Amino acid sequence: MVGLFFFIRASVKDRTEQITLLTSEPAEILLEQLQKYFEKRAYRITDIDTTKNQVTFQGFVKPSLFLAIFLTTLAALGLFCLALVLALLYPAAGNFVWLLLFLAPTAGIFYWRKAGRLEQVLLKVANSTPEQNHQKFLTVTAHRDELTQLRRALPLQVVE
After folding, report:
1. Spatial distance between the Cα atoms of 27 and 151, rounded to a whole number of angstroms
2. Which residues contact 60 (CB under 8 A, 6 or more apart)?
3. Superfamily of domain 16-61+117-159
4. Are 128 and 136 in contact (CB under 8 A)?
5. 3-state class of 75 per DSSP?
């Protein structure tokens, strides 16, 4: 039950990561491509900082209905097992231990309320050194799932 509790709580944890990508395209063209990409994904520009060469996108991330149902099902199974153990340990409690199963939907409700939130994507373009053939470093700070989708959609080399 403790592991299940922490698993449900971790379902809404912030998973923001940062990666650095390498590109040889000019900054203007690259930022235009990225702007189109993020607008397709329901993000909009909220801030442009020309002194830092940084653009901030913001978008609302919807909670997953599948994950809400999955977490509710896991909670129901965990509470069923707990009720079964309690029924065997305390037979005098009768059928009241089975009322614990009514707590299962709280896992889905918890996820649904906490998972729907505004996410930010920060893009920062930096020039490389002259011996690197005028390539640009693009630092992206976003949710890890968003970074995975970005790497699939755009042919950019990840700098390790």
Report:
1. 18
2. 42, 116, 117, 118, 119
3. Kinase associated domain 1, KA1 (3.30.310.80)
4. yes
5. helix
Q: Tens digits of per-residue pLDDT, 106-136?
A: 999 999 998 888 888 888 877 665 555 567 7
Other Cβ atoms less than 10 A from the Cβ of 123: the count is 23
Kindly report the length of the chain.
160
Query: In terms of Cα–Cα distance, which of 113, 119, 138 is closest to 41?
Result: 119
62 φ, ψ to 5°? -80, 145
What three-state secondary structure class fits 48? strand
Looking at the whole model, is its pTM more than 0.90? no
**How far is residue 78's CA from residue 71's CA, in Å, rounded to a whole number?**
10
Q: Give tens-digit pLDDT for 131-151.
A: 555 677 888 888 888 888 888
How many angstroms separate the CA atoms of 46 and 56, rounded?
6
11-42 pLDDT per residue, tens = 888 888 888 887 777 777 778 888 888 888 88
